[in-house]
């Protein structure tokens, strides 16, 4: 089982309110709170669907057991891009925590065992917690294609005016322009 928890949320939004308003061609301030809500909602939706962190934040990945791939190419993380491995701990059923940072490293967005390291055992009823810094960096570091995808998602939500109308119009998916960006970013497995 994989669980993802945000420990420290992003300190800034991936887009400024002014840039969103300019894209939507909104010139007054009467809908600022509505547009800010759309920005937050669109960001969360895009991050969830794509498994991305748009701006830097700290997250915790919790596993009940090690994925089998961790000893080979490494285990894929449920969120990317992973910038820094902060800690790896194993907690037993009684709450005793053991730190294993030195045995692991990040390689190509995967968590891997370092050479000549042994995989720590997870006691029955225990868990693995991996703390990571994830995201593309500051809002100014967000790749242009994701910036455009986020703007298009906000525009679709703004045009629908209500979350319920948006859900019905998209049938639970994303606008084609947004989905095309995400499809282009998918990892190709050989």
Secondary-structure topology with pairs:
Elements: E1 2-8, H1 17-24, H2 32-50, E2 57-63, E3 75-76, E4 82-91, E5 97-99, E6 104-107, E7 110-113, E8 127-134, H3 144-160, H4 163-170, H5 176-184
Antiparallel strand pairs: 1-2, 2-8, 3-7, 4-5, 4-8, 6-7
Helix pairs in contact: 2-3, 3-4, 3-5
In short:
The chain is an alpha+beta fold.
Which labels suit this protein?
190 residues; 32% helix; 2 domains; alpha+beta; three-stranded antiparallel beta sheet; 5 helices; elongated; 8 strands; single chain
The string of secondary-structure elements, in order, is: EHHEEEEEEEHHH
Mean pLDDT over all positions: 89
Q: How many DSSP-defined strands?
A: 8
Terminal CA distance = 26 Å
What is the chains' assembly state?
single chain
| Overall helicity | 25-40%
**Gyration radius from CA atoms, angstroms:** 19 Å
Question: Which regions are unreliable across 5 or more consecutive residues at pLDDT < 50?
Answer: none
Instruction: Record the strand order, biggest sheet.
Output: 1-2-8-4-5
Structural class: alpha+beta
- The count of domains is 2
Largest sheet, in brief, is: 5 strands, antiparallel
**What share of the residues does DSSP label as strand, in percent?**
15-25%
- What overall geometry do the principal axes of the alpha carbons give? elongated
Counted by DSSP, the helix tally is 5
